[in-house]
Amino acid sequence: MDHESSNVIGRLLVGAVSFVLLVTTFGIASERDKAKQPNVIVVMADDMGVGDVSATNPNCKIKTPNLEQMAAEGLTFLDAHTPSSVCTPTRYGLLTGRYNWRSRLARGVLSGTSEHLIPADRPTLGHLMKAAGYHTAMIGKWHLGWDWHKKNGKIDFTKPVTNGPDINGFDQYYGHCGSLDMPPYVWVDTGRITAVPQREEGVTAKEDRYGWYRKGPISPDFVIDDVLPHLFEKSVTYVQEQAKADRAGQPFFLYLALPAPHTPIVPIPPFKDASGLNPYGDFVMQVDHHMGELFAALKENQLDDNTLVFFTSDNGCSPQANIPLLLEKGHDPSAAYRGHKADIYEGGHRVPLIVRWPGHIEKRG
């Protein structure tokens, strides 16, 4: 794709509808063309501002070398906007291609115990890709509700989960119900709860300004600090599993919804204290590192040249990142745009958007 074509795409509404249009443009092909279709990975960070990536902010103080390389090898959108400045509505818009206010959610976001938001008969990006012959998977933060089995108002964790991403076009999924600060802290693998909670856990904002999360049931296999690397490990495994199918002519679509750098902001070594800013800057660095692992897995499995990768965020940086401190240290997560997450100002909905497809999207000059 040349720069003239990219300029045309750049004039599209970059948000929920544009993802669908972009993927459609790159080939929802006929049966005879399926072998030529690229694999598609959509990575959505959580609460990452447009100023937190060097590709979209020359004055960025956070080192993001893997995303910078992605940008150098692909296309960066400098005027990309989400359909909402908070989590759930953006995700609804991304997957359905509809205005987010057309859902039953009038305001705010869903909780970790909310019922499913997208009806089974509502066409989604997952359905679109399945119809084109793709194997589809969702890994990470769903935050669009699914239906826990409840008895007398309480969740029965011994029973399967219904109406998850599998009714919305995904062959398989592995994820957490809401934001990482929302209980219950339970992994669900395509309707199966991986471990029943045996206790409750939580950290108050007074105990940890950055790493707080609401108290609630937590499974023994759910470790808050390990969630981000765990989800990337699951994603790398999925890529490895799909490599053989790809060589046989069946492409894959992976929707990887990250829990970071949303609260709890819990960077692990060697990223802890690495940014020179605060834990938020460290956590963004960790996200970038794991993106490098994902690209490495694509290369190791000979999938790199035939995989179209999107990287974006659901909304701008949250005040939980301690924006005044970041500004004091010379880093603006909104890249000089006014506002932040939950605002109608551009800092709330202008986000990084980088697209890479070697050999098809022209490298940055």
From TrEMBL:
The chain crosses the membrane at residues 12-29. One of its GO terms (molecular function) is metal ion binding. Keywords: Calcium, Hydrolase, Membrane, Metal-binding, Transmembrane, Transmembrane helix. Signal peptide: none annotated. The keyword Hydrolase applies. Its EC number is 3.1.6.1. It holds the Pfam family Sulfatase. Residues 38-363 form the Sulfatase N-terminal domain. It is an enzyme of class 3 (hydrolase). It comes from the Bacteria. Belongs to the sulfatase family. This is Arylsulfatase. It comes from Bremerella alba.
